[in-house]
Every structure is written in C-alpha cells, then in structure tokens.
C-alpha cells in the first residue's frame, strides 16, 4: 500500500503552533520537547513580557501554554488576558503549583493543569484537550 501524500499546506494545518511561556528553563525545555515529539511547533518565552510580545506579532499561534508565576511585573494570567484581547480564538492552558482557578479566572482558562505534572503526561493531556476542542 502506498503512503498517502499530504500536501504541505494540509500537513502544516495538522501541526499546532504552541506558545510556551515558562520561566524555568529545564521545565520549559522538557515541555517543549514533548510538544515537538507530537510534531507541534513551539515558540518559547521565558517570561510574560516575551509571551505578550509574541502574541502581538504576526506569528501563527494555535495554543498558549503558560505558567502563572513568572519573574517581572506580569504573570501568566496577564498572558491569558492578552490572548483573549489579541487572539480570541486561541486556546489557553494555564499551569500552576500555587494558583487554584477561581471563578474570576474561569474566562481566561480553557484548561488548568496543576504543577508538578510530568511533561509527557502534560503533553498527552493537552493533546487530548486540543483534539476534543478542535
């Protein structure tokens, strides 16, 4: 049986582009590698300001995965607010070992993942979420 040839345009549509905002380098590296194993493209940001700059660019983004606590004046919730303002159709996954989502945050969060969660389990959970919502 011959392999099905998928036009590049269609193949690219099958790959998600993820903006990953996480200040801890090794955690960000592990999560990014798991997403890449899924065939997804990853744009990495080390803080909320960098993530918001990417959101304001013309880069394609299908999903934002952000930690809540990051250095600087802005948090992952600020990233989520920027997504809602700049890219309303983009899905938002929020990770935190400190925050428990409250009613006032529900409109900012499509999926909450408590930390610590092993990066392979996180990627699997997010993949299932994207397929269910997509």
From TrEMBL:
Q: What is the recorded name of this protein?
A: Response regulator
SMART domains associated with the record: REC (SM00448)
**Response regulatory domain residues:** 17-130
Domain of life (superkingdom)? Bacteria
Q: Which residues does this entry mark as bearing 4-aspartylphosphate?
A: 67
- Read off the Pfam families from this record: Response_reg
Which organism was this protein described from? Roseibium salinum
Q: Which UniProt keywords apply?
A: Phosphoprotein, Transcription, Transcription regulation
InterPro entries (alphabetical): Bact_response_regulator, CheY-like_superfamily, Sig_transdc_resp-reg_receiver
Does this entry carry the keyword Transferase? no
């Amino acid at each position: 049986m011959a392999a099905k040839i998928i036009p590049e345009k269609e193949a690219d549509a099958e790959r998600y582009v993820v903006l990953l905002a996480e200040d801890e380098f090794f955690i960000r590296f592990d999560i990014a590698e798991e997403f890449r194993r899924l065939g997804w493209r990853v744009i990495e940001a080390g803080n909320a300001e960098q993530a918001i700059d990417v959101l304001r660019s013309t880069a394609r983004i299908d999903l934002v995965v952000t930690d809540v606590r990051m250095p600087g004046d802005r948090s992952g919730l600020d990233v989520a607010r920027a997504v809602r303002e700049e890219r309303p159709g983009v899905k938002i996954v929020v990770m935190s070992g400190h925050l428990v989502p409250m009613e006032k945050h529900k409109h900012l969060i499509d999926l909450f993942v408590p930390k610590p969660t092993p990066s392979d389990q996180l990627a699997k959970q997010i993949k299932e979420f994207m397929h269910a919502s997509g």
